[in-house]
């Protein structure tokens, strides 16, 4: 190992990154992804466009309409159109929900006759539809309950007393942003590491390395250290965004976050290294890296689906990817704060170290200093 | 016309010869779409439930018997609340129910009782919908006022099946990403090799070359889209196709042309593939962000709503969703056709002019 060679090589890589303005990509892309997704993914649906067809026009139906009008979740319009016209508005994406109050609704309610309100929800976007459905049910049922209480109808009831642990106000940001850090730190270093090597392959300058006395280990250190150092800064940048822009609480210890993230970056680098071995063109390297990191990064991150609720195969697959282990620790440091008092966190950290070592060894063993 | 054909087929041939690229395109349009559709599900499913029963009565068991597959896993008993919360902290359990010792008694004597629920709300979507499920179960449990009913129907997708929706969205993202990168790469590759200036200097009309190159990539994208839509989204996930296929095809064609326009622009400002990747990400992210794919447009900030009018993706997503899921008639689709055509043409002409300039 020659320190001089490594230094010169690294200096060249840094200069290259700055001159080709890749440095912007290194710092802008992770921030951009975090900000876009952090703001972009909203599970709450506000101002959904509700159309009420009131065939009853009674006091009770006006009370109901009034309740919808005062809810921030709906932009309510009461229209005097036929049901088919309303349906056509949904089809043209001009409305999301139609609520039909039948004739003599009030009368039947007070006579305890059977009656029903129909709610038709645009199901083209299933999650949005389910959320809207629960909002509609909430408004309608709470009105009926108040009505019964006003007339002193005693009913047996079970009250639900729930506590949201870790994320008391059910903020979307708290649930999503830590997971996004796990995604970004998996994708970005991998792309950069893969590109630094594949670039030389595509331009043909890799032959300098093949034919020079530079050792394989020197080459790897020189190529991967800049990526590692540059992305280590991102660990802090992303943390600052999470804390000050998204106001995610940080209940754990900082050094755990830092240490785990550094190890995680090593894993990502090694994935990039593996990609650079199988590809010869930069474009293929970019797309391949994105595909093998983004999909598991999202699927097994716990953002969309908790690991504990996965089906058997998905549960096993999730344990094969490093994302899950990292995110478990990250969510702990942000929202729970148990640290290494919980043995599971410690175990997961060891697994991450094992992953980093394994992938790096495979990668460096497969990198050949010769023409195929 | 002959020149057009030659360049067109030359590009197709080059594409087919680079096996890596073909593999990546095929993978993204088929397997990737399949994995996303199969794997991602946002409905509460298999939710792991744990409970502590201090009351030793029948009612808790009756309530628990309503928590069954596919939404819930079999509830797991714990002996103390401490153990239960430890399991929640370790993310083994998502929802914990605690029945106090006077749970059933108070219902019988006072007419009301309390059920304590602990939710791991790091998975906000699941815990929110799980809570709402539980409320419904409990509500059904105690006899309600007879007669009244709220009937909700989710049009076009009664079971809120997310597989077909997510596979379809993944298809759109893949189409956008690959579409832009392919059409930019086909020009930038020549720039990198230094042959692009020669192409423009040849006695052949450079417009024809540019058109042929751009259309060859549009053709590849359209073929891949048909494969992806026809085979993966419609066949494997059984997505009902409620509209007319011609409408969908026309929308996709217009959209691919728009993408080619963006690709041309990116190609004209970048020197190598690396820059293409950077600039495409910088351009595509806002486009996707403003498209309403994640946040419904009407929930956005009013300023962003105005800005989103410029995103071609917005029209394509709304339009194609309308065709596929809502089965919208062609007349009502004009609101997507017209802006998409305008933006597409503008972008295409702009990129076309810019790439055709020699200096």
Write a short abstract of this structure.
The complex is a heterodimer of chains A (372) and B (359). Chain A is an alpha/beta fold and 372 residues long.
What does this molecule look like?
The complex is a heterodimer of chains A (372) and B (359). Chain A is α/β, with parallel strands linked by helices. Chain A has two domains: 3-41 and 171-366, no CATH class; 48-150, abc type-2 transporter like fold, CATH 3.40.1710. In chain A, 66% of the residues lie in helices and 9% in strands. Chain A has 14 helices and five strands. Chain A has helices at residues 3-19, 22-40, 59-69, 83-91, 105-110, 126-150, 172-203, 206-211, 216-245, 254-278, 282-299, 312-320, 322-336, 343-366; strands spanning 48-54, 74-78, 97-101, 115-122, 157-165. Chain A has a four-stranded mixed β-sheet with strand order 2-1-3-4, with helices on both faces. In chain A, strand 1 (48-54), helix 3 (59-69) and strand 2 form a beta-alpha-beta unit. In chain A, helix 2 runs antiparallel to helix 7 (172-203) and helix 3 crosses helix 6 (126-150). Chain A is elongated and about 95 Å long. The model of chain A has no long low-confidence stretch (mean pLDDT 83). The longest helix of chain B is centred in the middle third of the chain and has 32 residues, at 162-193. The model of chain B has no long low-confidence stretch (mean pLDDT 81). In chain B, helix 2 (19-39) runs antiparallel to helix 7, helix 9 (206-236) crosses helix 10 (245-269) and helix 13 (312-326) packs antiparallel against helix 14. The two termini of chain B are 27 Å apart. A four-stranded mixed β-sheet of chain B has the order 2-1-3-4, with helices on both faces. Chain B has 359 residues and is α/β, with parallel strands linked by helices. Chain B folds into two domains: 2-40 and 160-356, no CATH class; 49-141, abc type-2 transporter like fold. The chains are: A alpha/beta (372), B alpha/beta (359). Strand 5 (157-165) of chain A pairs parallel with strand 4 (112-120) of chain B, so a sheet runs across the interface.
